[in-house]
Amino acid sequence: MESPRIGIIGGSGLYRMEGLTELQELHLDTPYGPCSDALMQGLLGGVPVVFLARHGRSHHLIPSQVPFRANLHALKQLGVQYVLSVSAVGSLREEMAPLDLVLPDQFIDMTRLRPGSFLATAPWPMSHWPTRCARCCARPWPRPGPT
Predict the structure, then answer these.
(1) Cα end-to-end span (Å), the chain
(2) pLDDT above 70 covers what percent of the chain?
(3) 84 forms bridges with which residues in the sheet?
(4) Is 72 exposed, middle or buried (0-12, 13-18, 19+ CB in 10 A)?
(5) What's residue 52's pLDDT?
(6) Pairing with 22, which of 34, 41, 116, 145 sits 20 to 30 Å away (CA)?
(7) Distance separating alpha carbons of residues 1 and 7, to the nearest angstrom
(8) How large is the average pLDDT for residues 102-121?
(9) Nearest to 134 by CA among 121, 114, 120, 116
């Protein structure tokens, strides 16, 4: 099977990827410990993808326990270049109804009690990493370096 370029991280309620064929369950070692759960590699509509349940398939991890660094490192190890992360959240805006699909252009991560970034252990000198890079998948990520 060709290396997957697309990784899909499922949030609350999305623990399995319907339509994923030629399934392989993978367990990878990362410098950040184990992932939330097994990585499920397969084909989705003929396209190689990797799926990972953010909170585990049994939803056993609360947000502050999600090992996001291990999850992203494992996806990168498999050759993933683009990550689609799905989340179930609410809104205070009446025009946004349940089941609406929303693509945010800004975010605030209020998760606490876990490392906030890769920077403490980055192999390059860095003081800031702009968050715009993390959500702008249409362009290649910038080369590592200070901003």
Answers:
(1) 38
(2) 71
(3) 8
(4) buried
(5) 97
(6) 34
(7) 15
(8) 68
(9) 116
Asked whether 105 and 135 are in contact (CB, 8 A), the reply is yes
Type of residue at 98: P
DSSP string, the chain: -PPP-EEEEE-TT--S-TTEEEEEEE----TT---SS-EEEEEETTEEEEEEETTTTTT---GGG--HHHHHHHHHHTT--EEEEE-----S-TTS-TT-----S-------SS---SGGG-SS--S---GGGTT-TTSPPPPS---
User: What tokens does 127 get?
Assistant: 């003081």
Burial class for 87, CB neighbours closer than 10 Å (0-12, 13-18, 19+)? middle
CB 22 within 8 A of CB 42: yes
- Compute the average pLDDT of residues 85-94: 82
- Kindly state the average pLDDT of the residues 123-131: 57
Q: Which neighbouring-strand residues pair with 53?
A: 10
pLDDT at 135 over 90: no
Assigned token pair, 76: 């990168």
Distances (CA, A) of 62 to 20, 54, 65, 84, 103: 26, 10, 5, 20, 23
